[in-house]
Amino acid sequence: MNSSGITLIQAILCGLWYYYIDLGMPNPQTAFYTFYRPLVTGAVIGLILGDFKTGCIVGAQINLVFIGFLSVGGAQSQDPAFAGVLGAAFAIAAKLDPLVAVALAVPLSLLANFLYVFQMSVQNQFWVQLSKKHIQNGDRKKLFLTNVLFPQLTQCVMHTGAIVLILMLGVDAVAGLMNNLPQWIMNALSTVGALLPALGIAINLSVVAKRRTLPFFFLGFLLTMYLGLDLIVVSIVALLIALLLLYRELDEKGMTLDFGFGEEGDKNDERAIKLTKKQ
């Protein structure tokens, strides 16, 4: 245990959670829009470190920064999950203000790029080359080891090890640094932490703010600010409006949504929402 109170077991659990996120389980789409987001990651780190409330608060703040984040192929500028893990852990263990934790977590997420490049270099230069030899030799057992098992073990060690090292060695350093910084620097960090979520929202609006969608943005703003409606209520209203507009557009095109499920054992049972033409 370091002086900030994080035990080795807790650090390992945080690292394993980061590794699990990178696996994309149970499927890449679900993981990307749930576990990969700092909101969820911060809550999980809060549970591990015993401060669920702070984990949720910090995770929500960091999530706003990355609200417009997209990863195209293997290229990404930052890692939201990495920021969520470290931001929540630093805020809880070092007793940082959530806004200060956000200001620290966002630049630290750049470190994940170096981890990603190093990991892929090892995988491609070592395990992939061995897998090619096993394919040529037709050795399926060894191919499983070099194409599945060993690459996953390598990834687990790298991801978990990086988080463990940072949490066990870096939290005390961050706490000591913050305790000795002048108040004006702390105020500056808090200001930056407050502005970063606004930047994330602005980036998202640059995509969303189109002529057809901008009225809905202002509608949500009016419902929230002037009618005082809860965000959950506004979200439900938005969903209903979206469904009404979708059905209207489908009617104009002579289409309908089929929510039916095939029978068990049916080879054509795709169990998905399908577009069908009206009879």
Architecture overview:
The chain has 279 residues and is an all-alpha fold. 72% of the residues lie in helices and 3% in strands. It contains eleven helices and two strands. The protein has a two-stranded antiparallel sheet. Helix 3 packs antiparallel against helix 4, helix 4 (52-65) crosses helix 9 and helix 7 runs antiparallel to helix 8 (140-180). Mean pLDDT is 79; it is low at 261-267.
Biggest pleated-sheet summary: 2 strands, antiparallel
How many helices? The count is 11
Identify low-pLDDT runs. 261-267
Helix content: over 70%
Number of strands: 2
Q: What strand line-up does the widest sheet have?
A: 1-2
Residue-averaged pLDDT, rounded? 79
Beta-strand portion reads under 5%
Q: Which structural class do the helices and strands define?
A: mainly alpha
The separation of the N and C termini measures 68 Å
Question: What is Rg?
Answer: 23 Å
Q: Give the SSE string.
A: HHHHHHHHHHHEE
Shape: flat
Task: Briefly say what this structure is.
With 279 residues, this protein is mainly alpha-helical. It is 72% helix and 3% strand.
